[in-house]
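Weekly modeling sync, notes
Attendees: S.R. (lead), two postdocs, one rotation student

Agenda item 3: backlog of single-chain predictions. S.R. asked that every request posted to the team notebook include the full sequence so nobody has to chase files. The rotation student volunteered to paste the first one in as an example of the format we agreed on. Action items at the bottom.

Example entry:
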Amino acid sequence: MANKKRVLILGAGFAGLTVAHRLRENIPDKADVIIISESDRVYDNTIFPALLTDDVKIEKTYFLASQKLPSRGIEFIESKVLEIRPESNEVKTDKGTFDYDYLVVALGGAYEENFNKIKGHENAFMHHTLEGFLGIKKVVEEKDEITSFIGNAMNSPIEGPSYQVAFILEYLGRKLGKRVTVYLGTQSPKGMFGMLPVDWISKQVNEYAEKKEGLS
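Predicted structure, as returned to the notebook:
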């Protein structure tokens, strides 16, 4: 097709993959879709909490983009982005320079960079990365007594993972016969899920949490 556009997507996370799949579904004959990502492994961090209970193994938390995306009409390039050149519609990578008609930047929110700026971060874990969950898992396995504080950064739009980790740690303490105390911080004055427009969900979850020893 003569007027086919070249769409270059930087990043193979949820945002990048969603854009790519929506383009293939809605305008399959009008665009060539290419994803550039530094890693061929695409992790589903929504199931990372299940690593703590051994309900999921590491190899089940990711897929290889180079194997899955081409069959869906999406080209994948494993490469590190070095420079974006909007004046010439080009992206320079460590494997060459690629041109585009449309560019989508979905390289993430620099969570690790911001986390590392927090004083004392060496003694904490991010519940967003695989390394963070493996670190939490190691502590749970090795320590007989654990006191933890779980929370999100100010104005974070999603607190669900914090709730998951808090309840799982409390559960593991009971299951393994260990002394675990969990303090959960939330930005809503209504407590967990307090940001939802319906109050009954928050009320039931908070009442359940109050009944659990070791969870505050």
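Discussion: group reviewed the output briefly. The chain has six helices and eleven strands.
Action items: rotation student to repeat for the remaining queue; S.R. to check formatting next week.
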